[in-house]
Design a protein that fits this description.
About 50% of the residues are buried. The chain is α/β, with parallel strands linked by helices. α2 packs parallel to α3, α6 crosses α7 and α8 crosses α9. The radius of gyration is 17 Å and the shape is globular. A hairpin with a 4-residue loop joins β1 and β2.
Length: about 280
């Protein structure tokens, strides 16, 4: 897996890439309300880059369990002022959205990657615009397809049951190959097993233990463990006290084949990955 093709960059996957989270929201589960203003969000972008982030991931609508959806207009009002500046900061910029209209506006504003928790399945656009069409007609933007059971309002009320790896892998393979059928090159596609999105604590850790089997799908692989409730379940730590657990989980995810880790705490994650690299003789 040599690279992940995005709008402006071929992201080198021979070393783990750290994607820094920028929540432009008042209600995200961990840092909601901290970066709501465009100025605060951009200052946070700059800090994450100084801390070692290789990619920025901007999100203007929370997808935490129980989150209420935003209108497209509200989401764009939060997102676009930050995005237009973030794309000038020298690293690839991802936009975390599931709405086709927001995807199109974000790509028009210079975004490199679309990161979609719905894996391009959401289709309530009144003008008939679909997410696969937005991605397919762009010459080379990157896209991350995530597995989610249910939706943010219900996913932890009725999580998945039974074995976890096979249904997650099958879903992600179908989603990726459907996009390739639209003419999207495989090198543009990344997959994400969706830790915490409609899965039990046990299922999340089972996915981590078996994660290397997802790399067999042949796509870039992203893991998002940062500050998740499963880490709190096994450590007893509150959301804002899960930095160590999150860095450990990120390192374990990389050890088990993840190419990209999506994190709140970039500096600590970069340190953990350097320790892992030293152990593997890659310093």
């Amino acid at each position: 897996m040599p690279h992940w093709q995005t709008s402006r960059s071929r992201i080198d996957l021979s070393r783990p890439q750290v994607m820094g989270i920028v929540n432009i929201t008042p209600d995200s589960f961990s840092d909601g309300g901290q970066h709501v203003s465009s100025r605060d969000a951009l200052l946070h972008c700059e800090k994450l880059i100084r801390d070692g982030a290789n990619i920025l991931d901007l999100g203007a609508e929370s997808t935490r369990p129980g989150a209420q959806p935003l209108s497209q207009e509200q989401e764009l009002r939060r997102l676009l002022p930050v995005l237009r500046e973030a794309v000038t900061l020298g690293v690839p910029v991802s936009v975390d959205t599931y709405k086709p209209g927001v995807m199109q506006a974000a790509l028009d504003a210079g975004a490199d990657i679309i990161n979609d928790v719905w894996a391009l399945r959401w289709s309530d656009a009144p003008d008939g615009l679909t997410a696969p069409l937005v991605i397919a007609r762009h010459p080379q933007c990157g896209v991350c397809l995530m597995h989610m059971h249910g939706n943010p309002l219900t996913m932890q009320v009725a999580p998945m049951s039974g074995g976890i790896l096979e249904p997650v892998r099958d879903f992600l393979q179908r989603a990726a190959h459907a996009l390739m059928d639209h003419g999207v090159d495989k090198a543009r596609i990344c997959i994400d097993p969706g830790i915490g999105f409609g899965k039990t604590v046990e299922q999340n850790f089972s996915l981590l233990a078996q994660q290397d089997r997802l790399t067999d799908c042949g796509f870039a692989l992203l893991a998002g463990w940062s500050r998740k409730s499963s880490l709190g379940a096994v450590t007893g730590a509150a959301t804002d006290d899960r930095v160590v657990a999150s860095a450990v989980a990120a390192a374990l995810a990389v050890q088990n084949g993840a190419h990209i880790v999506r994190v709140h705490d970039v500096r600590e994650t970069v340190q953990a990955l350097r320790v892992l690299a030293a152990m593997q003789g890659d310093i």
